[in-house]
Input
Amino acid sequence: QVQLVESGGGLVQAGDPLRLSCAASGGTLSNYILGWYRQAPGKEREFVASITWNRGMTVYADSVKGRFTISRDNAKNTVYLQMNSLKPEDTAIYYCNAQGVGIRIGQDFWGQGTQVTVSP
Output
C-alpha cells in the first residue's frame, strides 16, 4: 500500500512559479509510474504529467509542455512538479498518483490533493 501526500499548493499570480511535492511512503516505487493530475471546478480530472520511477521517462499534457517539469528524488521518495509561467486556467486541485506496472499492475493510489489558484 502506497501513501501519497501532496504539498506546495497556494495562491499565486499569473506568471509566477510554484513547486508541488508528493511524498510517497509504504513501499518501493520501482514498479510505479508517478503522475500529476488536476481537476478544475466543474471539470473532469485530467492528466498533467508523469514520470517512470526507474528510468525517469516523462510525459506531459500539451497544455503544460514547456511550462511544467516533473522530476523525482529517489532518495527522498518524492516527486515534484515545477510549474512556471502559471496561467489562471491552471487553477485546480492537483493530485499525485502512483500507477502500478509490471508486477504491480492494477494498483492505483491517489493523494488527497493540493489546491493551486492562479489569479489574473
Summary: The chain has a mean pLDDT of 96. The radius of gyration is 14 Å. DSSP finds no helices and eleven strands in the chain.
